[in-house]
Amino acid sequence: MTSTRAPRADARRNRAALLRAAAEVLGRRGLDAPLDQIASTAGVGNATLYRHFPTRHDLVQAVFADQMTRYVHAAECALAEPDPWTGLRGLLVEICALQAENRALADLVVSAEYPDDTRPAVVDALRELLDRARDAGRLRADFAVEDVALLLMANAGVVRHIDGPATPASARLVALLLDGLAAEAATPGPPPPDPATVSRALSGRTRP
């Protein structure tokens, strides 16, 4: 019979220190922050970091698991809202506010390099909310789910370029953009980007 030993106290301390350091360094420098800087900030060696988190993806998921759960909860609340326009606006505001918390979250929300279990549920919720809001005559008819990706990429750009707390500037951008989504404000425009173009952009690739 085999037994599972609990992690040693020093291993638990090292893991906790790495998570704190990663939250600080990634939040300040973004998802591409050097892993050796995270290890140094935590006061451990690179080997210890890789023992706990074999890949950057493992580390990012562990650091931001709670925030991404919030992402799903916001989608559930939006779907439960009787007024689809209110639900859609509320969800987009919440996602953008999540991005504005720090640079890593700004990129994580729009990065295909870090897939997680929360994203499909949120995309499905967005599709349903867009359909409901269009059917209710509240959302401009030409707004597609690919346009949501553009909105979030624009917000991520604001967060990356603001020196200091990004929440006020992000909130201003989102308020202006959301006003442009209302059916009564719509004017004819170019079509939304095709899904392949959006997918390449989220993956950090610019051409096929």
Gross geometry = elongated
CATH architecture of the largest domain: Orthogonal Bundle
- CA-CA gap between termini: 53 Å
Query: Residue ranges: pLDDT <50 for 5 or more in a row?
Result: none
Tally of helical runs: 10
What value does the average pLDDT take? 87
What would the CATH topology of the largest domain be? Tetracycline Repressor, domain 2
Brief summary:
By secondary structure, the chain is an all-alpha fold.
Fold blueprint:
Elements: H1 9-29, H2 35-42, H3 46-52, H4 56-80, H5 84-100, H6 103-108, H7 119-135, H8 145-161, H9 167-179, H10 195-202
Helix pairs in contact: 1-2, 1-4, 4-5, 4-7, 5-7, 5-8, 5-9, 8-9
Summarize the structure in words:
This protein is mostly helical and 208 residues long. It folds into two domains: 1-54, Arc Repressor Mutant, subunit A (Orthogonal Bundle); 64-203, Orthogonal Bundle (Tetracycline Repressor, domain 2). The protein has ten helices and no strands. Helix 1 (9-29) crosses helix 4 and helix 5 runs parallel beside helix 8. The model has no long low-confidence stretch (mean pLDDT 87).
